[in-house]
Amino acid sequence: MTAHFFNNALTITPTNFANLPQSANTVLLFNANTLNVADYDLPRLLSEFELSVINRRKNPTAKQEYLASRLLLKMLVKTAFPEFANVALNTITTNFNHTSAKLELHINNCVINTCISHSHGFVGVALNSKNNTFGFDLEKISLTRPFEKLAKHFYHSDEVTLITSQPNTQSQANTFFRIWTLKESLAKATSRPIAKLLSPNVFTELALANLASSSQVVSTQTETFDLTLVHKKSTDWQCFLLTKQSLTI
Prior knowledge:
alpha+beta; 3-stranded antiparallel β-sheet; 7 helices; 10 strands
């Protein structure tokens, strides 16, 4: 019954910005660990607010993730919407709306909801200009995390059984993190706190919400991540993996 959630059916296409389709229903992935923040002219790329945020961050990975996510969002909106093609990057800004629990992109008096996710330097971003029911999440698959203990403490008993019935540690980890990204993506799509979705059966919750999901395992040179998108069944989202050269600005 739940097997299709583990099929890794999401297609991820390696590309660069020049070859992206002119579509707002696009998820961009990027390995921010490849960035050297010092190579970028930050005042030309980030708004004053964003500069204040990145300058407060001490962790190098946090700086890389922040810079990459903001540049990806800004370049994506310029690609998806030709009317914004000539807007200076430092006049576009992102702010978190605590009322809607959404990260908003502000450009030329327009406000566009966004969705971002990051894990251990790997970053994903998407725009949600039509405020569709949509969310995505990526998480590093770690064999050292006590995932069986965590599952028994937080997850639904049926989910725990699904994890512990797997034949080896790798399969158990893959199952644990797929369930996790499903829960996180559903939380973002429905604007529900993740704490409210940990114990319910996520497969039942997706059916009740009449939402579809698509997932894939993504590997970098050193790490492996689980990626899940949750969306309306009638909406076609595309996913692209960008190279380091794509953020040469």
